[in-house]
Amino acid sequence: MSATYRALASVVMLIGFYVVALLQLAAVVALGVWLFGHTSGVITGKLLLPLVVALGAVGVGMWKAIRTKNEPAPGLILDERAAPQLWATVRELATAVGTRAPDEIRLVPEVNAAVGEQSRLLGLIAGRRTLYLGLPLLQAMRIDQLRSVLAHELGHYSGRHTRLGGVAYRGRVAIGETIERISPRNPIGWVFKGYAMLYLMVDNAASRRQELEADRASVALAGTEAATSALRTLPALDAAWGFYMRRYVEPGWSAGLAPDDLFGGFAHLLQARRDEIDELRENAPEGTPSRWDTHPPIGVRVAAMTSVPPTAAGADDRPAWILLADVAGAGRALQSLVVEHGSRRLLPWPQFVAESVAAGVQRQADGIYRAAGRFTGNAGPGLPTVLELVRAGRLGEFAERFFGGATREEAAAAFAGPMETLLDNAAVRAGRARWQLSWSGPAQLVGPAGEPWDLAEVAKLAVAPESLDEALARLAALGIDVGAATVVQARASARDADLIGGLANIKIDGREHDVLVLDNGLVLIPDPGKAGEGEKRLTALVGSVPVAELAGRHPYLPYEEITSVEVRREVPLKATLTLFDGRTVQMQELMASEFLEKRSRDTLLTVFRRING
């Protein structure tokens, strides 16, 4: 069966989706007529209303799908001047696979490549073609590996896989919109969900076969080694990109900063951590087949590639980025198109890392300072507050809360780690040290002339009363004013927090709330809305804005302000939270409460157990 006919199967399934809707509509009408003849109009209306609402959702989903435009995704359009060698390569490969070259090439920020076609009349008439090429692929791959990726994507064109892509996409939109709008308790929704699962199984099976077909073009034009190594490089590169964003970009981004060369930084990381990425590629997981995947597992694809008769394609280990006239300029242009910086300050990488790491260390220090303030009753705590506890011999008592199960003596000694963080922060705030960028490892603290600074030994001296004065003398000799190191953020915020759960229509002190469970606190949203729509409401809420912004709009209760939790009943949940200032918060789950995901209550109970130690 050709790829076109397999894709047509998805279209037939989509048509079947609406046939099912029409049959159910006919059944509802027949039921309504029967009920009206045997019961009152009021009873008929009450019984039919949920069914009519469900069928209305089908109409809304279909209307949204029809109105969805198959527009090209955002990216930097590469013309002949920007990428002469890339265009020549693409045209050569297109001729080799027997297809028309794309009309445009768009550089995109993803670790991916794809093709699209704006076809008409259900794919019967070909349309404008777009090749999407991820800049990270150009930065990380050899030319022969990139040729295999391009041959694979052009193979989708020669196999006519893209002709019905728009129709299949609209089908997914229609089904997704319909399912989202039908209550999980509605019996009509059960039928649609079952059919949706069947539709996705058929559509995904067609997609997997098309990927294997396109892989054959990849091997034929680039060779087995280039094709298989490129395929194994993709998950390694994806992991490297994720690491890069988490470790290098996001800390500064959350601090109101942005790097002025986002993609250039990734190129530096690839160069500095080449051995690590090679190891990731060699150990890429084979994967296990699933009927829900749109692509076969890597192991299946590699096995299929190695079974294709070998070709005479030659190796080309030159870096793929030479196919662009100016890869650095293309990266900056792409960043300006696809990255919304908002009010963030654009900084060169060395300054960006220095300020972002300093902001992170300050947040860690603030957490310790706030705890010291609660412990001592000091309204403006800082490093002097902690050092006074050391001199008074009370550091162990204070440090116990950071090292559960340790004795006071053990906790005081272990506090050398947090103390080093406080001293590093004090050195930066005094202008005597800064954080230096390293692409091969964590940022390093360096002194005025760029010499490495290590305050670990001073921190060990600073946690014992008998050696505290020596520690202070060493700090003074380095020009560090410990008195200037004070709390910056007097109350914990949800910045950098992750959402780990959500509960809808929970009573907080007798008033209904939606509760978002973050990894460092609770967002309490009063008077959220009627019960029965809680899961849908929570899903829409957390998908609309970042959780840190939600915490800024609504009452926020950091876990560090909760001294203990008394759980009087786990299911349905009933608990009393006692705060450090003596106040209590009553929390009670209702019969109508719903969860963002089914383990949200268990997640919250785990948080409570951690608070209680």
What does this 3D model show about the protein?
With 613 residues, the chain is an alpha+beta fold. It is built from 22 helices and 15 strands. It has a seven-stranded antiparallel beta sheet with strand order 12-11-10-9-15-14-13, sandwiched between helices. The N and C termini lie far apart (62 Å). It is a multi-pass membrane protein. One of its GO terms (cellular component) is plasma membrane. It comes from Micromonospora sediminicola.
Number of domain modules: 3
Biggest sheet: strand arrangement: 12-11-10-9-15-14-13
The low-pLDDT segments are: none
Secondary-structure-derived class: alpha+beta
Largest sheet: 7 strands, antiparallel
Query: What is the alpha-carbon Rg in Å?
Result: 30 Å
Helical content (DSSP H or I, runs of 4+): 40-55%
Question: Gist?
Answer:
Keywords: Cell membrane, Hydrolase, Membrane, Metal-binding, Metalloprotease, Protease, Transmembrane, Transmembrane helix, Zinc. The protein has 22 helices and 15 strands.
Record the SSE blueprint.
Blueprint: H1 3-38, H2 41-67, E1 76-78, H3 84-97, E2 104-108, E3 113-120, E4 125-134, H4 135-140, H5 143-158, H6 165-181, H7 187-222, H8 224-254, E5 257-259, H9 262-272, H10 274-282, H11 298-306, H12 327-338, E6 345-347, H13 349-376, H14 383-391, H15 395-399, H16 408-414, H17 416-429, E7 434-436, E8 444-446, H18 456-462, H19 468-477, E9 499-508, E10 511-518, E11 521-526, H20 534-542, H21 547-553, E12 556-558, E13 562-569, E14 574-579, E15 584-595, H22 600-611
Parallel strand pairs: 2-4, 5-6
Antiparallel strand pairs: 1-2, 3-4, 7-8, 9-10, 9-15, 10-11, 11-12, 13-14, 14-15
Helix pairs in contact: 1-2, 1-6, 1-7, 2-6, 3-5, 5-7, 5-8, 6-7, 7-8, 8-9, 8-10, 8-11, 8-13, 13-17, 17-18, 18-19
